[in-house]
Write a structure and sequence with these properties.
Order of helices and strands: HHEHEEHEHEHEH
Oligomer: single chain
Strand content: 15-25%
Helix content: 40-55%
Structural class: alpha/beta
Largest sheet: 3 strands, mixed
Strand order of the largest sheet: 1-2-3
Shape: globular
């Protein structure tokens, strides 16, 4: 737990983008339930979710042998169709109106399910999908870059 918390603190600080943090704060203020859905390992994703103010975590589980973490996955890898199944199972009260933010085309099942899909700092394939479907594109990385000479 200490190692996971330390990793999340270092990685979280390095990965945070002001635009993303503002979006999280605005949605929290609006009373939305915030779910971090990631293929990353749950043992450290929980710490990232806590740092960023998420309510729930849907992530890939790992097998433990006593107090030893193994590289084996416990259950499904939280990726593609499995991510959507795991997300739906975790949402309290069924299918609420939902926004879903992703940077990768592997999340198409979740993006197609969402009422408000958002391509956030998208990969080139996801950006192309978002443009063709008229989805919102959030370029939080661009907002974090220092301004160039005027």
């Amino acid at each position: 737990e200490r190692a996971a918390a330390a990793f999340a603190a270092r990685f979280g600080a390095a990965a945070e983008l002001p635009g993303a943090l503002s979006e999280i704060a605005a949605r929290r203020e609006a009373g939305e339930i915030l779910v971090l859905a990631t293929a990353s390992s749950a043992y450290y994703a929980r710490h990232l979710a806590e740092r960023w103010g998420f309510d729930l975590v849907v992530a890939t589980g790992n097998r433990w042998e006593g107090d030893r973490l193994t590289p084996a996955i416990d259950g499904e890898n939280c990726y593609g169709d499995a991510k959507l199944r795991m997300l739906l199972a975790a949402i309290p009260g069924g299918h609420p109106r939902a926004a879903f933010f992703s940077d990768h085309v592997s999340d198409m099942p979740c993006l197609l399910w969402a009422d408000a899909p958002v391509a956030a700092n998208p990969s080139a394939p996801l950006r192309a999908e978002a443009v063709s479907r008229g989805w919102r594109i959030a370029d939080w990385a661009a907002a974090a870059r220092p301004a160039g000479p005027e």
